[in-house]
Amino acid sequence: MNKYIGILEGLLFVVGDDGLTLDQIKEILELNEDDAKEVLRLLRNRYEDEIYGIQLSFLGNTFKLTTKKEHRDYYQKLIENPTTNTLSQSALETLAIIAYNEPVTVQKIEQIRGIGSRDMVRKLIAKGFVKEAGKSEENLRATTYATTRDFLDYFGLSSKDELPKYEEIVENTDDTDLYESKYKEE
Fold first, then answer.
1. Does 82 sit behind a cis peptide bond, omega within 30 degrees of 0 on the bond before it?
2. Which domain holds residue 111?
3. Last residue of a domain, one of 18, 34, 68
4. Quick check: is 134 in a domain?
5. Residue (of 84, 85, 48) closest to 68 by Cα position
6. For the segment 27-69, what is each residue's pLDDT rounded down to a tens digit?
7. What are phi and psi of 130, to 5 degrees?
């Protein structure tokens, strides 16, 4: 059973907030129910050690990796620290995709960006710019995400209606050579 602990840990990391049901774990690992429960128990017991900052949680009929509540004060310091509270280019891209497509799933965000975005969505949730908005109509297991009031406040907007229209952004950038200045030397 020990060989499955690392595999399950990796699977739970990859699926993130979506988590895995017991049936999914059994199917993916090709285990019977008792063996799957044993692997879950072993992983949960490992995380009970204080050297780990995460735990195995059972939430909404799925197993997920979550942070430990007793470390909450440290997470809050990270979020509130001005040196760690800046937005990277990938964070801005992800926020723009969410703002213009919300409610949107991580899968759709990744399809648009062309790169894995699950961790970025988690970071944006931690910063308070994004929240869970429900479940996808196409895939009831997939969580959808939307922007928050903090997102609007951060960018000085009173509502999403103040965002530039997507068509205007595309129209203004389609024929622009980004490496050529509008201003010419005379």
1. no
2. 86-173
3. 68
4. yes
5. 48
6. 999 999 999 999 999 999 999 999 999 999 998 789 999 888 8
7. -135, 150
